Amino acid sequence: MSRRAPLSAAELSALEGVLWSHGPSRDVLASHLNYSRTRANALVAGLIEQGWLDEVGPQASSGGRRAETLQLHRSIGVLLGVDLGATSVEVAVLAPDLQVLARHGEAIDVGDGPGAVFTRIRALLRQLLAQLQLKASDVLGIGVGVPGPVDFGSGQLVEPPLMPRWDRYSIRDDLRADFDAPVWVDNDVNLMALGESWRLRRALPNFLVIKVGTGIGCGVVCHGEVYRGATGSAGDVGHLCVDPAGPRCRCGNVGCVEAMAAGPAIARLGQEAALGGQSDWLAQVLSERGTLTPEDVGTASRLGDAAANAIVQRSGALVGQMLASVVNFFNPSHVFICGGITRIGPLFLASLRQSVYQRSLALSTRHLDIGLSPLGEQAGVIGAGVLALQEVLRQSVPSRREGMAT
Amino acid sequence: MSRRAPLSAAELSALEGVLWSHGPSRDVLASHLNYSRTRANALVAGLIEQGWLDEVGPQASSGGRRAETLQLHRSIGVLLGVDLGATSVEVAVLAPDLQVLARHGEAIDVGDGPGAVFTRIRALLRQLLAQLQLKASDVLGIGVGVPGPVDFGSGQLVEPPLMPRWDRYSIRDDLRADFDAPVWVDNDVNLMALGESWRLRRALPNFLVIKVGTGIGCGVVCHGEVYRGATGSAGDVGHLCVDPAGPRCRCGNVGCVEAMAAGPAIARLGQEAALGGQSDWLAQVLSERGTLTPEDVGTASRLGDAAANAIVQRSGALVGQMLASVVNFFNPSHVFICGGITRIGPLFLASLRQSVYQRSLALSTRHLDIGLSPLGEQAGVIGAGVLALQEVLRQSVPSRREGMAT
């Protein structure tokens, strides 16, 4: 990573403006910063000279002079994004304009512990860099999403329910074995929400991202910013009660939506259907492989298996029931669904939607849009890249004063 | 209301800084605006000359020169605050520093319709002004809280479930019969949240206000601002399901917390206890008056009546169960309880707390503070005053440009 002169607060605002605008030009920046065109030009000229910004050809002319599109200069380095789930990991190398340059995903088990998992993640990151003929020193910053509650300051997981051996593990120190670049860690769904927010260039101020996989979590964007809550646990919806007469969850309470509707529950119900003679298809897979995955139930459902359909519908309805409470409270404009559940098939989303529209108040759902996450599997690594880039930029301003200004 | 010169954006920021600071001085403003002391002094001098600001004596000296406390000048006028509930109304006249100059509360029935209710409210406001020897023309702005969903732009209620005859009624036009001043209308709990936020001078960025009366609603403060949601219905928690096997609510769904735990449910259960021979005390009140109120059940509970205690505990536990979901999702630092339920006695709050701490995740509740609203019955009218003052100030800036600045 090349060393650059420190940024002024105005330069930071300009670079953030470039990051968060569609096709940013000098005019867009002038308007964004509430600057005269002359002042914006001078600011941009300085940032180009320092190597922070680059121009990428004329935009479609609007009659007057051509407006060059600005972007963060590729020479400032690359970002590494890591999106760790309970059973899989996505890693990516991203350009400063958040374009994914290289990406790899594979199955992983967080139960193997942080040392083994991050040894593998570091190897994957080194491979991706090598593939792009880049060195560790080209890395500007690293963003990491993890499936549990994170203390954002220290970058450590705090008592993660799905990852007992990870409590207070220093992901930063681990990555230092291979990379000098600064590391920021956040909850995986927060980063997916940040990724979608960047995709939309903050066009939607209030929306949710719901991840349904091994666990269930929710990323919250409020007033245009990712909302982490008073102690960082906002969006922890996996243990919302959907049935006071439901089964006991490992958290100690009963009827938690995660225990009744997430991946492991789908697999367990599939197994019961196979053993109970309700599904020949699932029984055959079970006898061949000795175990069933949520994806098997999804495949059976897509093939029209009635028992599998009932399981998927039940899961969608329960997640929808939880989401109805959240929608009544939060009144988002959009809900984006992501995680392993999106591979199950369309029946899940249909059941979830039906449940939400039935249980939420008309006023909350009249303009509510529920769909799959447009960034899909890339949402997490893109969000991780945005996080890293934002923090790198902010750290380039010496002792930035917070406050209002004219 | 006297006519003043338009405000510049910097002057607006300074006046908002005075409104939202504890003991605002020139130093506090300079820091708040990120201005030099010289520049802040010039700004304040101009605002004092225009009659917007006033000085109110030296602050405790911190060793150097004395720092005068600034406040909005009393001569700019007064604010009227109206907090309308389903069965009661509070009205107040407030100084520009939000001090309550005169206040009156009484029982009212929104079922009488908007015409009758606002004829009475206008009479009450005229009486309070007369009592203070003020005229209608002294009123700078009027804030009104109503117990239903509001379209903030038009200031109209939108399909309010508790107030069918109020749909799209123009409260603005109604108040114009007596007052020239501009009128802003918001949901009652949003205004209570704004009132508490002002009391705290935004020291708590993320908290909730839960009102339990005839209905149940929630005011949400997120990132330091009242959060209204994508279509203005955020905080609509009365119809969160707390029991899928519960009774049917007038909204069409089953097990809504409002139907099971709010004022009318408490009164109904009290009546059942009286008629079922479980409470001699309630039976006697019922036979004397022919009806029971939630307050009667509260009185019986405070006297140690076992049946009344069970009703209050059940209500607290159910509201707590709803709140546990909201706390898991939103992770607030504080929850303030207000509304008629606060007159029931301490058992309600104790049961609610127990239910929240049992059902919420440890991470969400470790630092969570649940208590009664410190502003109590005045929260709504103070919030209404804050809303009116903020909007009056904002409207004094001609065609204000929104945007980032250095």
From TrEMBL, chains A, B:
<protein>
    <submittedName>
        <fullName>ROK family protein</fullName>
    </submittedName>
</protein>
<dbReference type="InterPro" id="IPR000600">
    <property type="entry name" value="ROK"/>
</dbReference>
<dbReference type="InterPro" id="IPR049874">
    <property type="entry name" value="ROK_cs"/>
</dbReference>
<dbReference type="Pfam" id="PF00480">
    <property type="entry name" value="ROK"/>
</dbReference>
<dbReference type="InterPro" id="IPR043129">
    <property type="entry name" value="ATPase_NBD"/>
</dbReference>
<dbReference type="InterPro" id="IPR036388">
    <property type="entry name" value="WH-like_DNA-bd_sf"/>
</dbReference>
